[in-house]
């Protein structure tokens, strides 16, 4: 292999990277093969033609010509690389898509992954003073099971624990990620994590002070139950102290009473918060925060308690998940970020790649809009770390990358390295992609709707139908603007699951209570055909009402699961998309998956063995 041409003298440290300006495709990386000079595009097309249905073989064929160091990559990395290249080739004739520059980005990322020099930088985590990695290892996708059945390691399959250990080593030892986030509510995650961390410490591969450990326990009505659950976390994690503790899922107002009591609570009465303060005084918990999927107003109220050091919140380019459309200006939890900055709290973003748009399975349209500057996941990463460049003085510290396999940390690590070593260039890329996405949103939706769609829309607790009209409208916008069919279909399916557990012989309040705590994380019922929802829109501006009604009809038509198509409900919410493929609909090409970065089924979504 002979590299003939690399274009980008303005960035001498960037290696195999041409400018992401509108340079012609032939100005990319040229390779010499069998005395023939070919472009990356030609090499990729040839690999796809040779191996149209074999991701690993395709990856090896292209890597041999374009990035030989990647021939040593493990199987998961090869699968992802093959899918990425094949997706790019499939989009080569799309209007405005630059295949050569996009492939050059893939080559650069692949070389960095094999370079051995990727280290995730650290920042001060607000008032905690902790030096925290800008990528957090999220521990919600690698455990054996979701439920409480597993109580010791004899019940854990060896391949699951080996995979978990490989993830820890990739994060802690290879990439320098030092923040680990788990929860008592993540099934067997704490048990398995505790054993793995103890093993790493006992074999002198890490020290306890090398990592920041966070777990979460939900506020409970009975403080005694809360204390017992917290003790179980300590038992499973096998640590003397937690660097960070969070009240898990502060999603509805009653939980503030569980934490702090109410007007009738007398001094000295035990609450969940008073219990945590005991642990703080004993040195067993060092910093206290909360996580939330709640409304913007509830989060602001919780932050204003003035007792928390940090919070885990949803706040993504696409929206703020269940809080989408919230805040004084419809920007969701941006108001929360501003208030947290004022209080010098650590700002931790939950699930940017899943609840932020299923970016590990992006639509063809979204990927086309972010390339050749950045992949969708890298764009969201850069937006978080460089948020203050987009919105002055609004800083975010870290986000969670939920890893089901070691390779799930790769794109975050590459993005973090580039953010650290080539920040000016990355900020320029971020700004270009942000503007393209905003322009597309406005072009598709219209400026007036893009600016006002959220006004007067209620959440599930604000209307008699218990419909998340704010989320329904958010789905409509995401689908039209960026083709996020997979994401919106999966999210809408959560409403359908709630309906399956809704009992007609119970009152609405009884149903909601019965569905907690899950309802707090995923509130709302699906739309029902033939139901007149216009009474829920009394606060919607007159000029928006007809559009709202049309949008909900559109969402019902495209996102609701057709009746009697299958007797088996998907175990994984993302399988709702696959289920949709059995329905009599032709999914527009722009809405289809560009690729799927899940190389195999996550352990907790498998059948119990």
How far apart lie the N and C ends? 47 Å
Q: Note the beta-strand portion.
A: 5-15%
Strand order of the largest sheet: 6-7-8-9-10-11-12-13
Helix share bin? 40-55%
Low-confidence parts: 1-27
Structural class: alpha/beta
Count of separate DSSP helical elements: 23
Number of strands: 13
Q: What value does the Rg take, in angstroms?
A: 24 Å
Shape: globular
Average predicted confidence as pLDDT: 92
> What is the makeup of the main sheet?
8 strands, parallel, barrel
Explain what this protein looks like in three dimensions.
This protein has helices at 40-50, 55-66, 75-90, 99-113, 158-174, 189-202, 223-237, 254-260, 272-281, 296-303, 334-342, 364-370, 376-385, 387-390, 410-421, 423-445, 447-452, 469-482, 485-500, 508-515, 518-521, 542-559, 575-580; strands spanning 2-5, 30-33, 36-39, 122-124, 131-133, 135-138, 179-181, 212-217, 242-247, 285-291, 310-313, 346-349, 398-402. The chain has 23 helices and 13 strands. The strands form three sheets. The protein has an eight-stranded parallel barrel with strand order 6-7-8-9-10-11-12-13, surrounded by five helices. A three-stranded antiparallel β-sheet has the order 1-2-3. The protein has a two-stranded antiparallel sheet with strand order 4-5. It is globular. Helix 15 crosses helix 16.
């Amino acid at each position: 292999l002979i590299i003939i041409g690399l274009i980008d003298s303005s960035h001498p440290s960037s290696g195999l990277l041409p400018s992401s300006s509108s340079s012609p495709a032939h100005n990319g990386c040229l390779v010499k093969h069998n005395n023939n000079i070919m472009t990356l595009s030609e090499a990729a097309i040839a690999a796809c033609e040779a191996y149209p249905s074999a991701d690993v073989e395709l990856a090896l064929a292209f890597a041999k010509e374009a990035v030989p160091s990647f021939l040593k990559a493990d199987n998961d990395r090869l699968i992802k690389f093959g899918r990425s290249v094949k997706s790019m080739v499939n989009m080569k004739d799309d209007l405005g898509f630059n295949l050569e520059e996009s492939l050059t980005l893939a080559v650069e990322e692949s070389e960095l992954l094999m370079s051995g020099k990727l280290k995730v930088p650290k920042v001060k985590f607000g008032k905690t003073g902790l030096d925290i990695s800008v990528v957090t290892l999220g521990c919600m996708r690698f455990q054996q099971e979701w439920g409480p059945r597993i109580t010791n390691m004899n019940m854990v399959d060896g391949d699951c624990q080996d995979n978990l250990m490989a993830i820890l080593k990739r994060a802690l030892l290879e990439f320098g990620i030092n923040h680990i986030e788990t929860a008592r509510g993540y099934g067997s995650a704490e048990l398995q994590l505790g054993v793995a961390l103890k093993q790493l410490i006992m074999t002198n591969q890490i020290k306890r002070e090398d990592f920041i450990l966070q777990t979460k326990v939900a506020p409970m009505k009975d403080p005694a139950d809360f204390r017992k659950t917290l003790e179980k976390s300590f038992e499973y994690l096998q640590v003397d102290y937690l660097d960070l503790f969070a009240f898990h899922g502060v999603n509805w107002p009653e939980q503030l009473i569980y934490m702090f009591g109410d007007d009738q609570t007398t001094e000295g009465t035990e609450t969940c918060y008073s219990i945590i303060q005991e642990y703080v005084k004993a040195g067993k918990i060092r910093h206290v925060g909360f996580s939330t999927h709640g409304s913007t107003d509830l989060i602001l109220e919780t932050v204003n308690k003035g007792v928390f050091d940090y919070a885990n919140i949803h706040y993504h380019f696409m929206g703020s998940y269940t809080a989408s459309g919230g805040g004084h200006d419809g920007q969701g939890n941006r108001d929360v970020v501003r208030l947290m900055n004022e209080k010098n709290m650590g700002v931790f973003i939950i699930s940017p790649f899943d609840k932020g748009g299923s970016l590990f399975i992006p639509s063809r349209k979204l990927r086309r809009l972010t390339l050749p500057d950045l992949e969708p996941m890298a764009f969201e990463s850069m937006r978080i770390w460089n948020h203050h460049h987009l919105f002055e003085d609004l800083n975010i510290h870290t986000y969670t990358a939920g890893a089901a396999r070691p390779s799930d940390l790769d794109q975050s690590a590459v993005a973090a390295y580039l953010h650290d070593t080539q920040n000016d260039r990355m900020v320029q890329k971020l700004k270009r992609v942000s503007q393209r996405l905003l322009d597309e949103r406005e072009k598709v939706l219209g400026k007036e709707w893009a600016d006002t769609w959220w006004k007067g829309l209620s959440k599930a607790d604000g209307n008699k139908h218990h419909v998340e009209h704010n989320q329904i409208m958010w789905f409509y916008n995401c689908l039209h603007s960026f083709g996020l069919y997979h994401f919106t279909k999966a999210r809408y399916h959560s409403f359908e699951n709630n309906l399956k557990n809704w009992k007609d012989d119970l009152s609405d309040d009884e149903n909601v209570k019965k569905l907690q705590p899950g309802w707090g994380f995923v509130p709302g019922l699906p739309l029902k055909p033939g139901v007149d929802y216009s009474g829920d829109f009394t606060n919607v501006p007159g000029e928006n009402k007809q559009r709202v009604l049309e949008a909900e009809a559109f969402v019902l038509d495209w996102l609701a699961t057709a009746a009697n198509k299958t007797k088996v409900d998907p175990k994984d919410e993302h399988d709702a998309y696959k289920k949709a493929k059995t329905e009599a609909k032709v999914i527009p090409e722009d809405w289809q998956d560009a690729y799927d970065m899940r190389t195999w089924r996550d352990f907790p979504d498998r059948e119990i063995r």
